[in-house]
Amino acid sequence: MNSPGFPNRLFAQPLRELGRALIFLLTALSRMRLTRLQIGETLRQVYFAGVRSLVIIVTCGFFVGLVLTLQTYDTLTRFGAGDAVSVVLALSLFRELGPVLTAILFAGRAGTSITAEIGLMKATEQLDALDLMAIDPMERIVQPRLIGSLIAVPALVLIFNVTALLGGVAFAVLLMGVDPITFWGNMQATVELGRDFGHGMLKAVVFGFLAAWLAVYFGWTAKPTSEGVALATTQTVIATAIAVLVIDFVLSAFML
Question: Measured between alpha carbons, how far is 123 from 128 in angstroms, rounded to an integer?
Fold first, then answer.
């Protein structure tokens, strides 16, 4: 038998948390200012969130391309359609796998770091110190990380797609002997720049904003203890993964 608090934990608490996150986002957006100092800090966050995530993005992208091509080629050859492997690979990457996997990887690498950094600032009272010095923590801490992550994620999606395609080429052309002209020709003839690639990049922008928002929110609201910061980093990964998959379905339904 369910306890009286079960419906509250299942529905009311997530809705309250979503409301707090929306209020936090609106507050952060209303306080945004573009200054030379902010531009420099934003570029530093682009490097921190984007450039320092390249290793995991490139490695995972290459092997995702390898595995996807392996499984796709094996299945298509049973129906005599092995030459269409490049089409399936490109459409899968551009429409779904590139944006979704990159956002989840970003949350696990850079998102947790952002959450932990802001959480530790709160635990060590650095945010309160900024307030005492008449410096808006929202402007100095939150804004650069939001904008930096929003710039970094679409760029990482492009790199993920390119390296995954290289992985697909390495398997199909170099190992299985697929004609390279046929491989690229089928892809170029089928993939539409606006409908397939463009929709995927739109998802990348949305997911980048979502991952940045959740990372800074959970860091900002973390309890100022070691356990609180650890819980906040865990919540960042879980919430981002679930939100990305849900929003991905909604966007895909509208785009198709």
Answer: 10
